[in-house]
């Protein structure tokens, strides 16, 4: 039963071979069984079972009106505000925070009958690439418990890879869905910026944050984005749903560009071989693959680690120990309340990013850092635009290597940041990208291939990914 | 020593009279609301909340800009200004730094002896902060976020004022313009308009001196007095050979002095950057044109329209502070002539506290032009005395009755029927020997005796005798 896709699971429910309650109970018991991977922060058992019973009841009354995700259990990264459990962002700062409203995407999934059964682990406030920065302990990689699952949506990726739920929600600011998908061997989809609402998602960096999905198939990702997308009156940066989001009909032969900058000598040979195999598969499918160079792409990481901390330092200013969240006991003054609450509530990585962000926005430095980074960002966007004049999609690895050992990079933040080198480009440009399982290295660790498309090409991108799944 | 010229620039925060806040659907009118009842998750700065710009606030900002003869930006944008304070839930204020919605404009300002013009540099939209109170005798502070997120338009003037009277006149004219443009409720008591005044002295007319900014003045009088005090203070320092430091000062109402709050050296680094949650605001020409078309009459339109009414400056100013009254006066003038308009103007001005009065001003009463014209006609035809007319005026709003009905009910109608009054006068002179003697005195030239007779006539008629007619009848007896 484990390893079902969404459509298989909905199919069984409509055939009468399953109930929503049975689905939820099974998911919860699998999650408990895999407890040692620490993929979760909390479960929403009570609310999930209530919702399951309601769905079963209304299905008995009106079988024809089942939602497209009727009775499908899922896991949401714990930076989505939702009912039934606290929303912690894996931070001591929000350890006991009960959301008074739900994220738009959770509401839209629930409206189609999906059931949130648990909240998954992440790097606190999504600051990280390995899920080791969680204040609730690291999540372990389902393929090798001595290794990280990637981050920051590591708990969501692990829960799907372990077969506990057919899909999970993640967020991707610089690769936080794609990297753990690659390290755990599942499909990770990062939509075009603005396609999915950010309302009710604990903000990391507003200009690149997107809601993404971790699933077992690209088809499921396409179904999920179809359910969740569309303008949200609560998020001014949301876009209209493109008419070709559910791609109909076959794809004509496409031009795919293999990003040269991502195939250099520093890349693991097994990863390179897997990407080359994927390119050959594309060729067998009738598409044309040619090399392409994006000169500014190597600068994306530097741009990312200026712009994103700047926005983080601003977005985290609200956690001041006054209205909600962690408040330091025995603070003797207003200044002490701020200082101690933030010192004790945030972890080292949170503070590192707040400090970098505060620095690059400071008077006298903003021109040299933040503003220059924005200039390079524009150049990067233009380089992508130019490439998409010649190519329908770009391809490359998700990361230079497979999952690393727990603790391997924790002492060296720069090395940890380098893990994001291949994912931050699409984030800075707001482009849709998907991480697809593309084999494994000699140690059996999964390798991910990354497809990147122009803005709002999500429907076609996911169609190509589905086509590839059907080819050996 | 060369003569030092003061230059004054004013930044005014105007609270826009929208139903909801600048970026959330929470209610905007905090007057009288219990603390923390007009709040949403966004006002609390809860995680996951996002600002969504209120289109009504944008429309009011455009109207304000047009009323200031200013250029409206086709593209403006929002920035974050960071500082920590318990009344600022997000840890930053959303404002407009580089690309404000309103660009350069100008405002013509009346003075007792003429008119001068003040340049408007810019005006930008921003959200207000909440309110802190410190209960006396307690070591806690209370946070009320009702006002957090209220839309403000900050209007920045050029340093075109050169004395306390000009500063006050500008503040007052800006107030009248914003109230007439229906941009704000203009309730100064509740801080609907707050003035920050920049004062500097310089011997060189082309160069400003070191300025002091006096924050948060909320009446025209405090603007005038703070400017006067600050000019004197700076003049004395300069005369004493001391150098001035750029600083922010507060106005102390009790001592009528300004006090240093902080100097430039200790200024906060606000770390402004463009707010990534709010897309740039693009304004189509159609939208601006539509608002321009619907812009109500402004103070100078009314002044032009009333030029033949010979109204006192104070009457004009009082009416302009109450757009509903001003509009009634103008429509009466257009439809019923200047005499009625002039009379009604004086009545309504009499009901109006001075503009921007800091006391809790009542809502304007609900009059119709038709009722006021009827009342004015009654005075004109002698059916009502001036004093009685004011009594009817006071009883009119909400009565559901016409002025004539009210006058009758209150027994105020004047006895203006000539034959009836002749009758009463005859009876008086027959029945009252003292009155008859007074008549003789009057006829021999004692005018006081005439007043006595009219007084007695008033008494007989219960105050209803038309005094002008009575005097005329008495004169005829004289002949």
From TrEMBL, chain A:
One of its GO terms (molecular function) is glutaminyl-tRNA synthase (glutamine-hydrolyzing) activity. The keyword Ligase applies. PROSITE patterns: AMIDASES (PS00571). Allows the formation of correctly charged Gln-tRNA(Gln) through the transamidation of misacylated Glu-tRNA(Gln) in organisms which lack glutaminyl-tRNA synthetase. The reaction takes place in the presence of glutamine and ATP through an activated gamma-phospho-Glu-tRNA(Gln). Belongs to the amidase family. GatA subfamily. This is Glutamyl-tRNA(Gln) amidotransferase subunit A. It comes from Candidatus Chaera renei. Pfam families: Amidase. Coiled coil: none annotated.
From TrEMBL, chain B:
The keyword Transcription does not apply. Signal peptide: none annotated. It comes from the Bacteria. Keywords: ATP-binding, Ligase, Nucleotide-binding, Protein biosynthesis. Its EC number is 6.3.5.-. GO terms for biological process: glutaminyl-tRNAGln biosynthesis via transamidation; translation. SUPFAM superfamilies: GatB/YqeY motif, Glutamine synthetase/guanido kinase. It catalyses: L-glutamyl-tRNA(Gln) + L-glutamine + ATP + H2O = L-glutaminyl-tRNA(Gln) + L-glutamate + ADP + phosphate + H(+); L-aspartyl-tRNA(Asn) + L-glutamine + ATP + H2O = L-asparaginyl-tRNA(Asn) + L-glutamate + ADP + phosphate + 2 H(+). It holds the Pfam family GatB_N. Belongs to the GatB/GatE family. GatB subfamily. Heterotrimer of A, B and C subunits. Allows the formation of correctly charged Asn-tRNA(Asn) or Gln-tRNA(Gln) through the transamidation of misacylated Asp-tRNA(Asn) or Glu-tRNA(Gln) in organisms which lack either or both of asparaginyl-tRNA or glutaminyl-tRNA synthetases. The reaction takes place in the presence of glutamine and ATP through an activated phospho-Asp-tRNA(Asn) or phospho-Glu-tRNA(Gln). PANTHER family: GLUTAMYL-TRNA GLN AMIDOTRANSFERASE SUBUNIT B MITOCHONDRIAL AND PROKARYOTIC PET112-RELATED (PTHR11659), GLUTAMYL-TRNA(GLN) AMIDOTRANSFERASE SUBUNIT B, MITOCHONDRIAL (PTHR11659:SF0). This is Aspartyl/glutamyl-tRNA(Asn/Gln) amidotransferase subunit B. It comes from Candidatus Chaera renei. The lineage of its organism: Bacteria, Candidatus Saccharimonadota, Candidatus Saccharimonadia, Candidatus Saccharimonadales, Candidatus Saccharimonadaceae.
């Amino acid at each position: 039963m484990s390893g079902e896709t969404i459509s298989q699971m909905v199919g069984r429910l409509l055939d009468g071979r399953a109930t929503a309650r049975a689905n939820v109970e099974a998911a919860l018991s699998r999650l408990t069984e895999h407890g040692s991977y620490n993929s979760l922060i909390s479960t929403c058992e009570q609310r999930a079972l209530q919702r399951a019973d309601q769905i079963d009841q209304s299905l008995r009354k009106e079988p024809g009106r089942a939602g497209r995700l009727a009775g499908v259990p899922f896991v949401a990264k714990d930076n989505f505000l939702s009912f039934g459990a606290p929303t912690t962002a894996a931070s001591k700062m929000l350890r006991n925070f009960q959301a008074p409203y739900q994220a738009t995407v959770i509401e839209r999934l629930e409206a189609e009958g999906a059931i949130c059964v648990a909240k998954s682990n992440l790097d606190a406030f999504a600051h990280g690439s390995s899920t080791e920065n969680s204040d609730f302990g690291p999540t372990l990689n389902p393929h090798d418990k001595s290794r990280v699952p990637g981050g920051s949506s590591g708990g969501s990726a692990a829960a799907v890879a372990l077969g506990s739920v057919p899909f999970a929600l993640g967020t991707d600011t610089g690769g936080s869905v794609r990297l753990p998908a690659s390290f755990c061997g599942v499909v990770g989809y990062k939509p075009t910026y603005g396609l999915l609402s950010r309302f009710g998602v604990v903000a990391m960096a507003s200009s690149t944050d997107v809601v993404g999905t971790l699933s077992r198939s690209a088809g499921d990702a396409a179904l999920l984005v179809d359910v969740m997308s569309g303008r949200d009156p609560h998020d001014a940066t949301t876009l209209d749903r493109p008419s070709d989001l559910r791609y109909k009909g076959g794809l004509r032969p496409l031009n795919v560009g293999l990003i040269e900058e991502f195939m250099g000598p520093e890349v693991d040979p097994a990863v390179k071989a897997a990407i080359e195999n994927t390119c050959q598969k594309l060729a067998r499918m009738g598409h044309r693959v040619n090399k392409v160079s994006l000169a500014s792409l190597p600068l994306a990481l530097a741009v990312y680690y200026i712009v994103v901390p700047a926005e983080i330092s601003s977005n985290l200013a609200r956690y001041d120990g006054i209205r909600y969240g962690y408040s330091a006991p025995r603070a003797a003054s207003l200044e002490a309340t701020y200082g101690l609450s933030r010192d004790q509530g945030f972890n080292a990585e949170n503070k590192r990013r707040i400090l970098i962000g505060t620095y690059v926005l400071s008077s006298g430095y903003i021109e040299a850092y933040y503003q220059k980074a924005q200039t390079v960002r524009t150049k990067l966007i233009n380089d992508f635009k130019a490439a998409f004049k010649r190519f329908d999609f770009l391809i490359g690895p998700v990361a230079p290597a497979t999952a690393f050992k727990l603790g391997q990079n924790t002492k060296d933040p720069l090395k940890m940041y380098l893990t994001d080198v291949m994912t931050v480009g699409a984030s800075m440009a707001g482009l849709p990208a998907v991480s697809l399982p593309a084999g494994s290295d000699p140690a059996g660790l999964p390798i991910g291939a990354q497809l990147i498309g122009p803005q709002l090409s999500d429907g076609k991108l996911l169609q190509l990914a589905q086509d590839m799944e059907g080819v050996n | 020593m060369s003569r030092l010229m003061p230059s004054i620039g004013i930044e005014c925060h105007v609270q826009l009279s929208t139903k909801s806040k600048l970026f959330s659907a929470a209610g905007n009118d905090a007057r009288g609301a219990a603390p923390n009842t007009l709040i949403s998750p966004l006002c609390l700065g809860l995680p996951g909340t996002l600002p969504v710009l209120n289109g009504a606030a944008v429309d009011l900002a455009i109207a304000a800009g047009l009323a200031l003869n200013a250029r409206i930006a086709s593209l403006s944008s929002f920035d974050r200004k960071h500082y920590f304070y318990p009344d600022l839930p997000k840890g930053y204020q959303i404002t407009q730094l580089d690309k404000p919605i309103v660009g350069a404009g100008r405002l013509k300002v009346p003075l007792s002896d003429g008119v001068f013009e003040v340049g408007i540099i810019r005006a930008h939209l921003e959200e207000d902060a909440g309110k802190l109170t410190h209960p006396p005798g307690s070591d806690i502070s209370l946070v009320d976020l009702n006002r957090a997120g209220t839309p403000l338009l900050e209007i920045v003037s050029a340093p075109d004022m050169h004395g306390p009277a000009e500063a006050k006149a500008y503040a007052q004219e800006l107030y009248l313009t914003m109230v007439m443009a229906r941009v704000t409720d203009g309730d100064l008591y509740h801080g609907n308009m707050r003035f920050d005044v920049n004062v500097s002295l310089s011997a060189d007319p082309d160069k400003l001196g070191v300025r002091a900014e006096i924050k948060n003045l909320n009446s025209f009088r405090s603007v005038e007095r703070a400017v006067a005090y600050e000019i004197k203070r700076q003049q004395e320092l300069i005369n004493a050979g001391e150098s001035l430091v750029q600083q922010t000062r507060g106005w102390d109402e009790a001592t009528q002095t300004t006090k240093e709050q902080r100097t430039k050296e200790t200024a906060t680094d606000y770390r402004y950057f463009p707010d990534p949650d709010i897309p740039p605001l693009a304004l189509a020409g159609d939208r601006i044109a539509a608002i321009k078309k619907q812009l109500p009459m402004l103070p100078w339109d009314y002044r032009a329209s009333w030029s033949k009414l010979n109204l006192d400056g104070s009457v004009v100013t009082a009416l302009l502070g109450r757009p509903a009254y001003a509009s009634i006066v103008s429509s009466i003038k257009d439809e019923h002539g200047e005499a009625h308009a002039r009379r009604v103007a004086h009545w309504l001005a009499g009901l109006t506290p001075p503009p921007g009065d800091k006391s809790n001003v009542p809502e304007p009463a609900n009059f119709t032009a038709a009722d006021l014209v009827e009342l004015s006609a009654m005075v004109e035809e002698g059916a009502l005395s001036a004093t009685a007319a004011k009594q009817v005026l006071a009883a009119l709003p909400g009565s559901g009755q016409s002025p004539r009905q009210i006058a009758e009910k209150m027994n105020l109608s004047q006895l203006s029927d000539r034959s009836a009054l002749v009758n009463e006068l005859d009876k008086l002179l027959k029945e009252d020997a003292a009155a008859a003697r007074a008549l003789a005195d009057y006829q021999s030239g004692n005018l006081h005796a005439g007043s006595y007779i009219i007084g007695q006539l008033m008494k007989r008629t219960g105050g209803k005798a038309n005094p002008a007619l009575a005097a005329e009848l008495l004169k005829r007896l004289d002949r």
